[in-house]
Amino acid sequence: MKLSYLAFKNMVSKPLNLALSLMLLWLSISLVTFVFQLSEQLSGQLDKNIAPFDMVVGAKGSPLQLVLSSVLHIDVPTGNIPLSEAKKLQKHPFVKIAIPVSYGDNHKGFRILGTELGYLEQYNAELASGTLFQKSFEVVVGSSVAERLGMKLGDTFVGAHGLAEAGGELHEDRPYTVTGILQPTGTVIDQLLISNLESVWEAHEHGEEGTNDDAQKNSEHEHDDQGDHDHDDHDHDDESHEGHQHEETEHDHDAHDEEHDHNEDKEITSLLVKFKSPLGMVQLPRFINENTEMQAALPGYEVQRLTKLLGSGVQTINGIAFAILLVSALSIFISLLKTIRERRQELALLRTYGLSTRQLLGLALREGLFLALIGFVLGWILGRLGVLGVSQYLKKVYGYGLELRGPDIFEFYLLGLTLILTFIAALLASSSIFKLNVAKTLSDA
Amino acid sequence: MIIGPSGVGKTTLLHLLSGLLPPSQGAIHVGETALTALTRKELDMFRGAHMGIVFQQYHFIKSLTVSENMKLRQSYPQNADDKQRRNLLSERLGLADCSSKKVTELSQGQKQRLSIALGLIHKPQIVFADEPTSNLDDENCDRVVQLLKDEAEICKSSLVIITHDQRVKSHFQNQVVL
Hints:
heterodimer; A: alpha+beta; six-stranded mixed beta barrel; B: alpha/beta; two-stranded antiparallel sheet; 6 strands; 39% helix
């Protein structure tokens, strides 16, 4: 019979003691692993989603709100900005890519985003089936949306005004048609219904001003003040213009001017920018914030600020969890001490069987380490169940889920720490084994 | 058989003979082996391998079953696992029906017999039995002593009984130390 088996049998022979010691260990391990997974995955998700863009330009307001709404799509926008202003920025020498985004509608709680195809490229989104949107009211659907709503190619739906799931006025006469379904990317794209900018504009034009949100109204109201934005922009505005044949009729030009004027009135929610060099990140946001009616926010900085704020909470919870871990080590110590005192005669009997002091010590240590291992595994499982619960909640409320990951290297370190603490506790509790008087113990029974 | 009134040091003598207590002077030999010359570890090994002790009080590992207690005794120090021997001894001592019971669930008689089984299961050279009949009535006293004698004979073990019980004397006519 192996000593490990005997240690295990000894451990389970007192279920109440076992449960008490396990519960404390269980609680601390589940807390630490849960908080670790949560903070790691949230920060990983945030980093992944902000990675394609260095700067967001939107209406004045909270920069964090701008990032949360326009990059992560978990907040309401700060307002709108004129498309003409955005187009100016698109031509800026520091700017490598600038993608306008516009939104204000949803379908069953999932945002309908008007943007350009370049947006999908930035997230390396690929089609699982169908084609990308070619014209207005054609839409490609993120993988999570397709899965949750059971959408397939050719399906049609109408957008509801606003970003909340319930209560928005429906744009009944402007139905969207699903032309493509995207593969999962693990980014915000999975939660979106993506069409071109014109779809968003037309949906709101048709519904008329009355359906626009307050932010849009405000922007439109201010539009006159920002009126001097025509021809300079127009000259650079459409590169295809350069390729126009000379034979083009005046009528063509007029039509183009008309379209241009029309576009001048357009607004977008924000412009997502990637710089050519880090220099842009230093100069352009300050320029925009000081010299325009728009605001520039840096997603990297804002997310760092957010995680810093969350970080202090995480540290506090981790502190509490480690304190519980120490208490659980103390509980294991007390439990083993009690067990060893109660089993003095059994230990003495084992000495008469030929077991050495070292083997008896090994027996007590095994018991402690089994306790630690079982407590750790149960705590780890509980922590993951917590992640699963939070993931369900986040998916329901924000559309973001968390992964159920395997053990992380940090958790192996935590296991090591738990085993070391338990080893010390078991060693201290077992010190009386060295002083065991076998003859006296067996006679005193 | 070593017989004498309570308090004269019979159990102390047993502890000395089994190496559980070191003598303050002199030497103890068991066969060719000088117990007093062995290291602590060697003494533990020697005792485990060559001696069986039937204690006055019943000492078992409470978390294990009857069969597991016997298996454990076989496992140390030689790491043996002779199931046939366990079954045979269980049969002879009337423990076969309760082999899967926890020791805490045994009757006094069963505990007594298990105690004897644990002293003999590993076929020791010497079996020490400390007051094996002190709590038994006449009938059971005779049964237990006969059991010890028979098992020791089967195992070819020397049997040393330490007792103050005069009833035991009749079983050992020519081998009594007063």
